[in-house]
Design a protein that fits this description.
It is built from 14 helices and two strands. It is mainly α. It has a two-stranded antiparallel sheet with strand order 1-2.
Length: 372
Amino acid sequence: MAAVHKIVKLQERRGTLPQEVARAILAGFDKHYTLFRRAAVEAKTLFERADWAQMRQLARERIQMYDRRVEEAVRALLDRYPEAEVDESLWPAIKLAYIGLLHEHKQPECAETFYNSVACEVLHRRHYHNEFIFWRPAVATEHLEGESPTYRGYYPLQDGLRKTLRAIAGSFDLKNPWEDGERDLRNIVRALRKHFPRPARAQPDLQIQVLGKLFFRNKGFSGINHLPGGDDDLFINKVANKGNTNIVIDPDTFTMSEPKKTFGEWFRQKARHYSTAKYYKPMHKLLLGMYSSSHILFYPLFIASLIAFDWRFVLPVFGLRLLVQGFIYYKAMDKLQEQDLFAWWWLLDIWMFVYYLIFVPAIWKKPRPTWN
């Protein structure tokens, strides 16, 4: 009788397990989103106080925030529901239960991305298009009403361009005063006239739409949320252009990322990153491919040249390359405040040859439609 009771209990647990796991994953995402929005509010306060050191620290914490919440969710699942790691047949039901929790959720697409990250870590696999993860949005978002409008509309033909720009600048309710608001206003008008020189005429329905939040993270991950890694750099590759991107080398802009704790975790992370290379823009794939190819080919060609040609010609060319490369690395490491690595740059350069041999095959590895 006791054995029958135990079997019934196990069946009941298996029947409710997908819902429990789904709720645990969503709870992890809700915690992440709450902390993330709180950090955005704190960023506005620090900006108003001109506390740049704390802004820099907060930026570091925000970059680490997502990975930390994923790690917390993975540990919680493995501790409470160890079956989720070994029984892959549970995951279609977990996904369905998760979809049910997202119908009235305010951030379903971001929650789906979080789910994918947790699932990839729990099952230690690389995923693409299969029934265990979200490879396209499962919940429509058109019917959702936000707590406040994402954009505000302004009509310069009604109020005048300068008055409209003043209203936009004042709408963010920043506590710190402008150094010279009229000067900044003139600079904006001057920049606009470069793009719209006279005699440009505005249409009667012209409006300027402005994001409602000053500290707002662009929500552009829905097109790549089926990928197991690389979402941040793919997002930047997707939206960056000459008009909105600059290279800044300044200590106040440096951010640090915590490394993986074990070789296995590091290896899986790098393999995931390389598996997303095919999604870059064509020109960037070409440039990155040329850079990687130069690393892979240099040392084999150097050895082949020593065998095929007179070493007295080959070694000076190799030495010149080392000098130029060393100079570039020295200047770069000095700018990035990583001078302690300079003594090892030549060894790291050799390691990069081995590194590419290990990970480049992941670029051409075809996605597997199933887990098995």
